[in-house]
């Protein structure tokens, strides 16, 4: 099993990407293919200790910039690290692909080069959120803004598989993000989606409000990409604000500073649990093979953890399980709903 890594993607590429890749290869026993401008990639490899790391380099002369238009750049930059890396997966030379580069180009490339899983109309991003009750999945986190009930149903199947196979939850509870727990609350989209879920064999718990993300009501929260992206970024902003509030309160008195020193280990633990770098990024579910999207500002640590997660996608064959789940339990329902 080999993981193709976009060595040129992200704000701190190739340095942080290469260093994270080396650490992940050594600590997680993964075989990696670094895809990018060979001279620059090898220069970074020479700057670190690569002993025990199974890494090869595949040259890609072009780089997709963050400002590039996804659909256009894939046609114009045919030798970009994103396109070459995805093609390695399509050709069976790698099991999954990971990038901290232009996420729109990664998504477009996944559709164009890897193709959709049978039974999936739209791939979706599955974000993992840390909560006091354990990690939960939010899907879609930004890939699809305008959705139909059939699409959200498919997101539910994909999120359920991911929670079961990657997070280790034996029978994930699935909820639809809405503005109230009553069946009558929400939009036509959420109400019609709930009707579809009730006809499936999934462990469906009904509507889930925003506060339920951290209340342990569900393990998989389903919504369109607009709602999901706003929710994720609100959570990230709130986590940062809480950290700032704590710093301000601690600095107000000497006694508070002493208390902070005594609680330093606990405070550091909370910070680590809220840190997105612990998960590295999020998978794009619904395409053949594994695709993992990282934050553009990913550091060495974030890339290390993201590559580990991309390895889990491939090892567990999540894409094949999604296809099986939709075919066995929900293939007819999405098609019927799509005609509504």
Walk me through the structure.
The chain has 340 residues and is an alpha/beta fold. The protein contains 13 helices and eleven strands. It has an eleven-stranded mixed sheet, sandwiched between helices. The radius of gyration is 21 Å and the shape is globular.
List strands and helices in order, with pairings:
Layout: E1 2-6, H1 15-28, E2 31-36, H2 38-46, E3 54-59, H3 70-76, H4 81-90, E4 96-99, H5 103-114, E5 124-129, E6 136-139, H6 149-165, E7 173-177, H7 188-197, E8 203-208, E9 220-222, H8 225-250, H9 254-262, H10 264-274, E10 281-285, E11 290-294, H11 300-315, H12 318-330, H13 332-338
Parallel strand pairs: 1-2, 1-4, 2-3, 4-11, 6-9, 7-8, 7-9
Antiparallel strand pairs: 5-6, 5-10, 10-11
Helix pairs in contact: 1-11, 3-5, 4-5, 6-7, 6-12, 6-13
């Amino acid at each position: 099993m080999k993981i193709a890594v976009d060595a040129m993607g992200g704000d701190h590429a190739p340095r942080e990407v290469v260093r994270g890749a080396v650490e992940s290869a050594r600590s997680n026993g993964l075989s990696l293919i670094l895809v990018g401008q060979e001279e620059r990639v090898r220069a970074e490899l020479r700057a670190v200790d690569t002993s025990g790391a199974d890494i090869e380099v595949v040259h890609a002369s072009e780089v997709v910039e963050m400002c590039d238009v996804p659909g256009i750049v894939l046609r114009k930059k045919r030798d970009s690290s994103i396109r070459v890396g995805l093609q390695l997966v399509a050709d069976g030379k790698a099991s999954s692909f990971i990038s901290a580069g232009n996420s729109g180009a990664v998504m477009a490339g996944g559709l164009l080069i890897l193709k959709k899983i049978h039974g999936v109309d739209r791939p979706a991003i599955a974000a993992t959120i840390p909560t006091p009750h354990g990690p939960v999945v939010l899907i879609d986190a930004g890939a699809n803004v305008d959705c139909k009930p059939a699409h959200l149903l498919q997101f539910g199947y994909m999120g359920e598989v991911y929670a079961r196979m990657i997070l280790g939850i034996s029978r994930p509870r699935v909820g639809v993000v809405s503005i109230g727990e009553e069946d009558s609350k929400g939009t036509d989209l959420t109400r019609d989606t709930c009707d579809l879920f009730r006809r499936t064999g999934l462990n469906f718990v009904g509507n889930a409000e925003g506060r339920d993300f951290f209340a342990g009501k569900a393990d998989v929260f389903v919504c369109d990409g607009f709602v999901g992206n706003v929710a994720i970024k609100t959570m990230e902003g709130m986590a940062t604000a809480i950290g700032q509030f704590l710093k301000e309160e601690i600095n107000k008195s000497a006694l508070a500073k002493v208390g902070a020193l005594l609680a330093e280990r606990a405070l550091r633990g909370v910070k680590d649990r809220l840190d997105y770098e612990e998960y590295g990024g999020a998978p794009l579910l619904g395409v053949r093979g594994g695709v993992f999207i990282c934050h553009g500002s990913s550091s060495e640590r974030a890339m290390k953890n993201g590559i580990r997660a991309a390895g889990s996608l491939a090892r567990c064959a999540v894409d094949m399980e999604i296809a099986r789940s939709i075919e066995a339990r929900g293939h007819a329902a999405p098609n019927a709903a799509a005609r509504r």
